[in-house]
Design brief:
Chain lengths: ~775, ~180
């Protein structure tokens, strides 16, 4: 070795080096016993197991994180869980990839380039929080208490919500997950049955299942899908109403490829058929339903023949389906659905009709039907009930909820109303947005309008795990600890196998990521709000757990889960006291009538496609959640891009084959990113379908960027729901462009005169 | 200062340059020494040689090393290059820590994973201080030089400002020369 010759430095260099005092010399200390490394068994064997709760989708399966040397090496289902046991889905397994994704947000950042450019500089937490607090105070002082709005999603956002609530704005908790997703089904079932039915359907004991667009198999929540499969294994028949031959349709005994937008017609005709033919459960209706006679009158005359024509289905098929359902009543499941922001005007009616059909055949509170939640009374810790310095809530002269009489069912303000007010300044200006854990541009109808609103803001901050589109637009980005790095809430499952568990960190937060509780606590302090008095998340959770005689320590000693006995069923012969207007199941809604809304579901035609176009519908990918997992490498490898489903006969006439790359152009002239075509007989010729969430526009997501096409960026025409202000997502039409040539869809299924066509009015900025 | 002390200090300088330029420790001396070294080693910049202010330097550091971006990921972590699928905190980190342990050292708590280039350069400095040439060669051959060349070329592809181009080129030169001259 010629060590002495190693790198000769000039005299000037040596002199300068000699004179330098380095502040950061040495990043090491001598090794000590505490730094011991766990050795021995390979892989995850011998790892420490920490129970927690998954957040790769909204289902929140109990998990255990397997940790070695402070590093997460594997995720499995919590074997103590009565629902998923040791199982997790592909996404659950892939949480590890989210944790260690080099693209993740790492430090607080401040925008240095133009808004939307994604040019940032790292700043300290103090600077970031000071700047957010300063801008909130400045905005409210200048424009009033309601000039700030929070868009949020999920349990981690609860803490931010409390802050915005305490600041006296009506614009907190404006969850796109309600107004752009499940608002219609939530409202419909809540007013009909008096509780949030969600997916509380007893698949395991069902003799028949009926789905409207629900596509289990492509939509996977572990416990739910296990129960669905168990039901099928036990011999349940399955009826699927869907314009597409979905994974569920593939298992169906009857597939009804309905014309999109006509589900209410089918449901009304079925309700009428059941009533006219005395197939309903008379005793149950008399004992527990309100408004049957008015319902009967309202649906009268809507025959199966009428519905068959509207829905483009065969009379014999829809008769066979309803006969199968009622022959097995009451042990049948009409799945309420989840994402229901389809057509705007008729969404609540569609889900009310499903709820009503369920009720009149007595398929509620019984085995195989809808069931009731088992109450577990955990005292919720309200952070700012009487906290010091809380701003008094003074309602605005004109509220953004005023146009929507049933928006009060949700804590927040319709997202669309906020966006429009941000652009127009009417009825009052909105100049600051906070965004936590929600991708506004891939979630809310008309992302171009959302971007325009963002340009109008004085300030926008986001709290993010990954640098998604909203982060690209933000002035300040806060790095939020992901679900594997934080405590956040007590999770109670009140379904068929009730339990309580807690999310807890399996590893320490990386970089400078912080938990939502910590962030909210620091921000509240800067805003002069005396909230979040607990010193730590552990203290906060222990206070809640104490109300059921538990603590984190006790819970962890039992493997992180405590189970309870379920009480899902009720005696149908007894008179129930439900939390509805009448105390019974509401077949008829007087309160709707009082607000000039139809008290029983009514069919209103949804405009059909313009000539040459097909309606665009969307759904889930089995390995992805919304738009938030596309950058996850394992999941990306499984499904890197989406494909556009096109009917085979249409494709033949348009000269397309599977794998061809096309661009979609919608009725307003907006074009999609390129997408490959999947040619199939499994979709109606007037409809195209693509899995949701692809086509990310964030160049900071190295794997997801521009991969596939976004359905949301084609959703530029939407209709507001008149009940609560949700936005429609299935009211857009596309034609295709291949090699620069426009390809129009042939019209293979004639449209009856009762259904008008959508009239194209080209937007100038497309 | 002995010549080894100089080299060790130089590696600490480079380690500092690869850490986020926080105002609590950043001084213009770091620009000066990088300029002098560039002259010594005849290193030319493709970008403008204008010296940035601290805020500009921080923004550039953020662009290059904190945020990733399509086509120009310059993650400064061994794991991203040594792991088959490019994740943080995988085998590359284990490998680095096992070398640190061999030298009887343990990285101080940091917000960064300890296979960050700043840790690895600082580790080399500690090895030189201890005259632990064998371990230095092993570390270069069996760890650092397995990933540094990829990191280096990605960094240059990202078209950094002159300062980071100089730092990258000086580091590359020193590491290559060290391996060439010490490990043969």
């Amino acid at each position: 070795m010629k060590r002495r010759d190693f790198l000769k430095l000039s005299a000037a260099t040596c002199a300068t080096l000699a004179g330098m005092e380095l502040e950061r010399k040495g990043l090491f200390s001598p090794l000590n016993a505490e730094a011991a490394v766990e050795k021995g068994l390979p892989g995850s064997l011998g790892a420490k197991e920490i129970p927690s709760v998954c957040e790769m989708c909204f289902w929140h399966c109990p998990i255990v994180g397997k940790v070695k040397n402070g590093r997460l090496v594997k995720i499995e289902g919590n074997p103590k869980s009565p629902t998923n046991g040791h199982r997790v889905c592909a996404r659950g397994n892939s949480g590890i990839q989210l944790l260690y994704d080099p693209d993740r947000t790492k430090y607080p950042m401040k925008r240095v380039g133009p808004r939307g450019s994604g040019q940032w500089t790292r700043i300290s937490w103090d600077e970031a929080l000071d700047e957010i607090a300063y801008n909130i105070q400045k905005t409210q002082k200048k424009y009033g208490p309601h000039s700030i709005a929070l868009f949020d999603h999920g349990i981690a956002s609860e803490f931010y919500k409390e802050i915005f609530k305490a600041l006296g704005t009506e614009n907190y908790s404006n969850e796109p997950c309600f107004f752009q997703c499940l608002g219609a089904v939530s409202l419909a079932y809540a007013v009909t049955y008096g509780y949030q039915v969600k997916e509380r359907v007893d698949f395991e004991n069902a003799k028949v299942m009926l789905f409207f667009g629900t596509h289990y198999g492509e939509n996977i929540e572990v416990s739910n899908i296990r129960q669905y499969i168990k039901g099928l294994q036990r011999g349940a028949k399955l009826i699927v109403v869907d314009p597409r031959f979905s994974a569920a349709a593939g298992k169906a005994d009857i597939w009804l490829p309905i014309r999109p937008g006509t589900d209410v017609a089918l449901l009304i005709a079925w309700i009428n058929y059941v009533i006219e033919n005395n197939l309903y459960d008379k005793d149950f209706v008399e004992t527990n339903c309100y408004g049957f006679d008015k319902l009967k009158k309202a649906v009268k005359g809507h025959s199966l023949e009428w519905a068959a024509k509207i829905c483009d289905l065969k009379v014999k098929d829809i008769k066979r389906a309803i006969d199968l359902l009622v022959a097995n009543k009451p042990h049948v499941t009409i799945h309420p659905g989840r994402h229901s922001a389809w057509y705007g005007k008729t969404d609540v009616h569609r889900h009310r009709a499903m709820a009503i059909l369920t009720a009149i055949i007595g398929a509620v509170g019984v085995k195989g039907g809808l069931y009731f939640p088992t109450p577990i009374h955990i005292k919720k810790k309200l952070e700012c009930l009487e906290c010091k310095n809380k701003r008094k809530f003074v309602p605005p002269e004109t509220s953004l909820r005023d146009d929507y009489p049933f928006a009060y069912f949700f804590p927040g303000t319709p997202t669309d109303a906020i966006i429009k007010a941000t652009i127009t300044g009417k009825p009052y200006p909105i100049k600051l947005w906070g965004v936590t854990c929600v991708n506004l541009l891939q979630t809310i109808a008309d992302p171009y309008q959302t971007m325009k609103a963002i340009e109008n803001l004085d300030f926008i901050f986001t709290s993010e795990i990954l640098p998604t589109e909203p982060a690209i637009w933000a002035d300040i980005v806060l790095p939020e600890a992901n679900y594997l790095e934080r405590y956040d809430a007590v999770y109670k499952n009140t379904d068929l196998y009730p339990y309580v568990t807690v999310r807890q960190p399996v590893v320490k937060p990386m970089f400078e990521a912080k938990s939502p509780y910590w962030i909210a606590k620091q921000l509240a302090k800067r805003l002069g709000l005396e909230m979040f008095e607990c010193e730590s998340e552990e203290e906060y959770l222990n206070e809640m757990l104490a109300s059921i005689n538990l603590s984190l320590e006790k819970l962890n000693k039992q493997g992180g889960i405590v189970t309870f006995k379920a009480h899902p069923y009720k005696d149908p012969k007894e008179e129930w006291d439900l939390n509805t207007d009448s105390g019974s199941i509401q077949l008829y809604m007087d309160s709707f009538e009082d607000n000039d809304l139809d008290p029983v579901p009514k069919y209103e035609p949804i405009p059909a496609q313009p000539k040459g176009y097909a309606r665009m519908v969307y759904g889930r990918s089995p390995v992805h959640t919304f738009s938030r997992t596309m950058n996850n490498l394992w999941l990306h490898n499984e499904c890197p891009q989406n494909m556009l489903w096109i009917n085979d006969e249409c494709a033949k006439r348009m000269g397309l084959k599977t794998g061809d790359i096309v661009t979609m152009e919608n009725q307003d002239g907006y074009k999609s990113l390129p997408i490959a075509v999947k040619v199939t007989p499994g979709i109606r010729p007037d409809t195209v379908y693509l899995p949701h969430g692809f086509g990310s526009r964030s160049p900071k997501l190295t794997k997801a960027y521009l991969q596939g096409a976004s359905d949301q960026f084609m959703n530029t025409y939407y209709v507001d729901d008149p009940f609560f202000g949700g936005s429609s997502h299935r009211t857009n039409f596309v034609r295709l462009i291949k090699d620069g040539k426009v390809l129009e869809f042939p019209e293979l299924r004639p449209i009856p005169p009762e259904i008008p066509r959508y009239k194209i009015q080209k937007k100038s900025n497309a | 200062m002995s010549e080894y002390e100089n080299i060790s200090k130089l590696l600490d300088v480079l380690s500092t340059c690869f850490s986020f330029p926080d105002k609590s420790f950043w001084t213009d001396e770091l620009f000066d020494i990088i300029d002098i070294l560039s002259k010594d080693f005849d290193i030319k910049c493709s970008a403008s040689p204008l010296r940035p202010n601290l805020k500009e330097l921080q923004a550039e550091y953020t662009r290059l090393f904190i945020n990733t971006g399509v086509g120009k990921i310059v993650a400064p972590y061994a794991s991203v290059y040594l792991d088959d699928i490019g994740l943080l905190c995988q085998e590359g980190l284990d490998e680095a820590i096992s070398f640190y342990r061999k030298a009887g050292l343990y990285p101080l708590p940091s917000s960064e994973p300890q296979d960050h280039i700043m840790h690895e350069l600082s580790f080399l400095a500690r090895l030189i201080e201890k005259n632990n040439w064998e371990l230095l060669c092993e570390f270069l051959n069996h760890h650092l030089m397995k990933w540094f060349p990829s990191f280096y070329s990605r960094l240059l592809e990202a078209k950094p400002i002159c300062f980071y181009e100089q730092v990258a080129k000086i580091t590359n030169l020193i590491l290559s020369q060290a391996r060439e001259e010490v490990c043969k």
